[in-house]
Amino acid sequence: MTDDQMTEAAERDIERVADATPETAPEGVTTTDALEDERAEGEGSDDPSGDETFPREYVEKLRKENADARVKAKRADDLAARLHTALVAATGRLADPSDLPFDDAHLEDEDALNAAVDALLARKPHLASRRPVGSIGQGATAPADSVSLAGILRQNAR
Question: What Rg do the C-alpha atoms of the chain give, in angstroms?
Answer without folding.
Answer: 40
